[in-house]
Specification:
By secondary structure, this protein is mainly alpha-helical. Helix content is 66%, strand content 0%. The protein is built from 5 helices and no strands. The chain has helices spanning 2-11, 19-43, 51-71, 87-102, 111-121.
């Protein structure tokens, strides 16, 4: 649950002590969870609009939001929020990797997200 994620984020220094940055991390994580629910509805429950329409029409809008957020933080060369990794980064990576299994080319028009996945997956002990 998100409550557990936030708890673990605080416990293992994967959160921010700055209130504004912590709110941004929470906002990103909530956006990740919104995307995860849509993904789950398509993959596990076969909800409409179906995978093709989801991949072609809905997913790019969500990915664009994360791409813009990345661009505003260290010009996309760092983490989703702030100067250190947060629990939201791990959650975002997970949902992006899930989508890459569904649609391997889904990040091709999102260079910052593509580079982000590469950076995150190259981290030791991940």
């Amino acid at each position: 649950s998100n409550t557990i994620l936030r708890y673990l984020g605080r416990k293992y220094d994967l959160y921010s002590s700055n209130a504004k940055e912590a709110a941004l991390i929470d906002m990103v994580n909530d956006g990740v969870e919104d995307l995860r629910q849509k993904y789950g509805g398509i993959v596990f429950y076969h909800h409409e609009p179906g995978p093709e329409k989801y991949i072609e029409e809905l997913l790019p809008n969500h990915l664009n939001t994360f791409e813009r957020l990345l661009s505003k933080n260290s010009k996309g060369s760092g983490f989703i929020a702030g100067n250190k990794i947060s629990y939201a980064d791990f959650n975002l990576l997970d949902v992006l990797q899930n989508h890459l299994h569904l649609a391997p080319d889904c990040l091709k028009t999102f260079p910052l997200l593509s580079a982000y996945v590469e950076r995150m997956t190259s981290r030791p002990k991940l």
